[in-house]
Recover the amino acids of this structure.
C-alpha cells in the first residue's frame, strides 16, 4: 500500500491551463453541467477535444494517439469532469477499450480502431453484464460457436450504456465449456452494434432517461479478426480492464458540480454556519481524494501496479460522491423535481435519482472491498 | 522524501521503537508524559526540529518536524514535540527570542482564556488564566501571544513558577489549567506579522493531524495482525467478509489522513497554508473517529483493555480530534473561506494539492 504526494510539473500545469482555456471557450456559461461521466453524447465536442489532442492520450503516436502519461490523461479528465463537459460519446472507448486493445489487440485491430478512437469518432460500450451475471462475471451465458471464418454469438447483455448510440461493444462470452474451471473458456469478441442479429432496446433509467440498453445477440456473426486477444483468455483480460477503469477522476467528481452550484447560487451572505461546515467538509474530502487518485496515476507512470490502491480509491471516491448528495440536501432545504428550478436544484434532483449507480458501476463496493481486503491481508 | 528527511524519520523511529514501547507507554501514563523518551529525543535534536539554530533550535523545516511528529503519533508517545518545536520555539524565534533548553508549551486559544500583559517599573508582568494547556506541568517555559495596546507580543514565562491545576486528556496526557497573577515575564518582544494566536492554532492543528496520521498507520497494522492471528469458528477473523470491511475502512481512512497531513506538512514552506491544514485536520478527525470504531469492532473485547496496545492509540485519536480545533471548528472556517472565494475559485483550489517549493499560493 503506497500513496505518494504528487507535485505537478510545469508542463503538466501548462496542460491544465490549456484545457481550462479550451473549456471556457467551448462550454457556454449558462449550460447545465453533466454529473460526471454520465454526460451528453456530443460527437462534435468529442471531435474538437480530439483535435486539441485530448482524446487517445494514452495511445501511442504510431496508432494515431498522443502517447501521453497517465498523469496527463488524469489532468485532462479531471478538468472535463469538473466542468461537467459532454464527454459521453468518446469516454468509455478512450478510458477502457483503448488500453485493452493496446494490451491484447492484434496489430490490425490496433491500426484500425485506435486512430479512430483517438479522433473521437469511434465509440464503444461495455459488454460484460448479463441478466444472470452481475458482479459474478464468470457466470456469463452469452456464448459463441465456431463457424466458417469466425464466430456466431448468441445471448443477452444488459445495462449496456450507450449501445443505441455507439459503434461497437466488446462482448465477454463463453467460447468453450468451463470444464470445472469457470474462469477458463471465456473470450472477448468485438461486436459491431450495427451487425445483423443485434437488437438494442432501451431499459429506461430511474430518472426517465435512455442510457441503459438490453442488447440481444441472435446468431450474430463475428469475423475471426474481431476476436479481442486470445480465445480463452477473456477472464484475465476483463479483470485487468476493470483495473483501468477503477480509480480515475470519474470515481470522485460525479457530484462536484452540486457543491459548485450550491456556492454559486447561495453566495456568501446566505451561507450559515451549518452550510459552511458542509462546504468545508466536502472541500476537504475533494482535495484529499483527488490527491489519492492522482497518486495512483503517478504510480502507473512509474511502472507500478497499484491494484489495491485503485480499489481503495474507488471505494472511497464513489461513496463520497453519494455523501455529497446527502450533505448538500441537508443544507439546501428545498424540494426538487427533475428538470425543475435552478441549476443546483436540477443537479440535486438528477444526483438523487442516479446516485446509487456510483457504487455499482465498474465493480460494486462489495466486490472492491473483497479485492482490497485480499491485498491488505496477504 | 529527501535524504535528510528519510534520515530523520529513521532515526526518530528507532528512538521511539526503543523508548515508547506499549509497555513503556502504559507504565508512564500516570505521570502524564514520557520523560526518559523526551531526554533521548532532545539529545538528538528532535525536540527543537524546525526551530532555527540561531534561536537555539536544531534547524530543519516544518516537513522535517512532521516526520518526527508522525512517529510520535505512531508510537503513542507522550512528549511535547509539537508544542516545543512547532509552537513555542517558532513563536520565540520569529520574535527574535531564543528558545531555552527544556520542554515548552503555549496557550491554545480556548475561548475562556484570559491574559493581560503590563509594563511596570519592575518590568513586564503577566496575569491570566489558560485552559487545557498541553504539558504545562512538565514545561520549562510557557510561550504566549498577548496583545498590548492592540499590538501582539510574544511573551515567555518560566512555567515552574506558575500555579497549575492538573488536567488530563482522554489518553492521560497532561492538559492543565494555568493561573498566573502578576508574574514576571522572562522575555517579551513584539510579534512580527503572521505570528498570532490563530497562527499558533493552525500549527497546532497541523501537528495533531500529522500525529493522527501516524497513530492511524499503527492502528491499521495492529488490526491486520490481530485479525490474521485470531481464529473464531475455525478460521482467522480476516477471512470473514464482515471483518474485512473493517480492515478496508481503516486502510482507506489511514491513507486519506496520511495524504492530507503529508501534503499540508510538505506545503508548509515556510508557513502552513490555511486551506491545507484545515482540510488535513478535518480529514484526520473524521478518519480517527471512523478508524477507531472499526478497529475496536474488529478487535472485540481485548481492544477494550488497558493491557493491549490499541487503546493507547484510539484514545489519542479521540482526543486529538478536538485539540487545536475540531472538525466542526475547521470545517466552518474552511467553508466560510471557500464560499467567500466564490464558485469560480472552487475547482482551482481543490485541484491544488502538493505544490513545488517556493511557489506562491493563496493564504487565508
Amino acid at each position: 500500500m503506497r500513496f505518494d504526494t504528487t507535485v505537478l510539473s510545469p508542463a503538466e500545469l501548462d496542460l491544465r491551463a490549456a484545457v481550462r482555456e479550451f473549456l471556457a471557450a467551448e462550454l457556454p456559461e449558462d449550460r447545465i453541467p453533466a454529473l460526471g461521466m454520465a454526460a451528453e453524447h456530443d460527437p462534435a465536442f468529442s471531435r474538437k477535444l480530439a483535435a486539441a489532442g485530448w482524446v487517445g492520450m494514452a495511445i501511442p503516436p504510431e496508432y494515431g494517439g498522443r502517447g501521453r502519461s497517465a498523469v496527463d490523461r488524469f489532468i485532462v479528465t479531471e478538468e472535463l469532469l469538473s466542468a461537467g463537459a459532454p464527454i459521453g460519446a468518446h469516454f468509455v472507448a478512450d478510458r477502457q477499450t483503448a488500453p485493452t486493445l493496446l494490451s491484447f489487440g492484434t496489430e490490425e485491430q490496433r491500426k484500425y480502431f485506435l486512430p479512430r478512437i483517438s479522433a473521437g469518432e469511434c465509440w464503444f460500450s461495455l459488454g460484460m453484464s448479463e441478466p444472470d451475471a452481475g458482479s459474478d462475471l464468470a457466470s456469463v451465458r452469452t456464448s459463441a460457436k465456431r463457424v466458417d471464418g469466425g464466430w456466431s454469438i448468441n445471448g443477452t447483455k444488459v445495462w449496456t450504456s450507450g449501445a443505441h448510440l455507439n459503434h461497437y461493444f466488446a462482448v465477454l462470452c463463453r467460447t468453450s465449456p468451463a470444464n470445472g474451471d469457470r474462469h477458463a473458456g471465456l473470450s472477448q469478441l468485438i461486436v459491431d452494434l450495427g451487425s445483423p442479429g443485434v437488437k438494442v432496446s432501451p431499459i429506461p433509467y430511474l430518472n426517465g432517461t435512455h442510457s441503459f440498453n438490453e442488447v440481444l445477440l441472435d446468431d450474430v456473426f463475428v469475423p475471426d479478426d474481431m476476436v479481442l486477444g486470445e480465445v480463452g483468455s477473456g477472464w484475465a483480460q476483463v479483470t485487468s480492464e476493470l483495473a483501468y477503469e477503477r480509480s480515475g477522476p470519474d470515481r470522485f467528481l460525479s457530484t462536484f458540480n452540486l457543491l459548485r452550484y450550491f456556492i454559486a447560487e447561495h453566495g456568501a451572505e446566505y451561507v450559515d454556519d451549518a452550510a459552511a461546515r458542509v462546504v468545508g467538509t466536502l472541500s476537504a474530502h475533494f482535495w484529499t481524494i483527488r490527491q489519492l487518485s492522482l497518486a495512483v496515476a503517478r504510480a502507473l507512470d512509474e511502472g507500478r501496479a497499484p491494484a489495491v490502491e485503485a480499489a481503495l480509491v474507488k471505494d472511497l471516491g464513489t461513496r463520497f460522491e453519494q455523501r455529497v448528495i446527502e450533505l448538500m440536501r441537508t443544507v439546501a432545504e428545498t424540494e426538487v423535481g427533475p428538470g425543475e428550478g435552478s441549476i443546483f436544484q436540477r443537479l440535486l434532483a438528477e444526483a438523487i435519482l442516479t446516485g446509487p449507480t456510483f457504487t455499482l458501476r465498474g465493480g460494486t463496493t462489495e466486490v472492491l472491498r473483497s479485492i482490497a481486503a485480499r491485498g491488505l491481508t496477504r | 522524501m529527501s535524504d535528510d528527511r528519510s534520515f530523520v524519520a529513521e532515526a526518530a523511529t528507532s528512538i521511539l521503537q526503543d523508548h515508547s514501547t506499549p509497555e513503556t507507554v502504559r507504565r508512564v501514563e500516570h505521570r502524564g508524559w514520557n520523560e526518559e523518551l523526551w531526554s533521548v529525543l532532545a539529545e538528538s535534536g528532535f525536540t527543537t526540529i524546525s526551530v532555527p539554530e540561531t534561536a537555539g533550535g536544531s534547524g530543519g523545516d516544518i516537513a522535517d518536524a512532521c516526520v518526527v511528529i508522525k512517529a510520535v503519533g505512531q508510537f503513542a508517545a507522550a512528549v511535547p514535540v509539537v508544542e516545543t518545536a512547532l509552537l513555542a520555539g517558532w513563536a520565540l524565534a520569529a520574535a527574535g527570542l531564543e528558545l531555552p533548553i527544556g520542554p515548552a508549551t503555549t496557550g491554545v486559544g480556548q475561548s475562556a482564556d484570559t491574559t493581560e500583559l503590563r509594563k511596570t517599573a519592575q518590568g513586564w508582568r503577566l496575569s491570566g488564566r489558560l485552559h487545557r494547556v498541553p504539558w504545562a506541568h512538565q514545561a520549562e517555559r510557557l510561550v504566549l501571544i498577548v496583545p498590548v495596546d492592540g499590538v501582539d507580543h510574544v511573551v515567555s514565562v518560566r512555567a515552574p513558577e506558575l500555579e497549575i491545576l492538573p488536567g488530563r486528556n482522554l489518553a492521560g496526557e497532561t492538559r492543565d489549567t494555568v493561573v498566573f497573577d502578576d508574574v514576571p515575564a522572562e522575555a517579551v518582544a513584539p510579534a512580527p506579522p503572521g505570528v498570532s494566536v490563530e497562527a499558533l492554532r493552525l500549527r497546532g492543528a497541523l501537528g495533531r493531524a500529522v500525529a493522527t496520521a501516524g497513530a492511524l498507520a499503527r492502528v491499521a497494522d495492529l488490526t491486520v495482525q490481530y485479525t490474521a492471528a485470531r481464529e473464531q469458528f475455525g478460521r482467522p477473523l480476516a477471512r470473514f467478509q464482515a471483518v474485512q470491511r473493517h480492515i478496508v475502512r481503516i486502510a482507506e481512512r489511514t491513507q486519506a489522513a496520511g495524504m492530507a497531513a503529508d501534503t499540508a506538512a510538505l506545503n508548509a514552506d515556510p508557513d502552513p497554508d490555511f486551506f491545507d491544514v484545515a482540510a488535513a485536520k478535518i480529514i484526520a478527525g473524521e478518519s480517527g473517529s471512523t478508524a477507531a470504531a472499526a478497529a475496536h469492532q474488529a478487535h472485540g473485547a481485548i481492544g477494550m483493555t488497558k493491557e493491549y496496545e490499541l487503546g493507547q492509540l484510539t484514545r489519542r485519536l479521540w482526543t486529538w480530534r478536538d485539540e487545536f480545533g475540531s472538525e466542526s471548528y475547521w470545517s466552518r472556517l474552511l467553508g466560510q473561506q471557500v464560499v467567500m472565494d466564490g464558485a469560480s475559485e472552487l475547482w482551482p483550489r481543490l485541484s491544488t494539492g502538493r505544490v513545488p517549493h517556493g511557489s506562491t499560493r493563496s493564504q487565508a
Observations:
- The first strand of chain B starts at residue 104 and ends at 106.
- Residues 197-229 of chain B form the longest helix (33 residues).
- Chain B has two domains: 3-190, 197-350.
- Residues 281 and 320 of chain B are 10 Å apart (CA to CA).
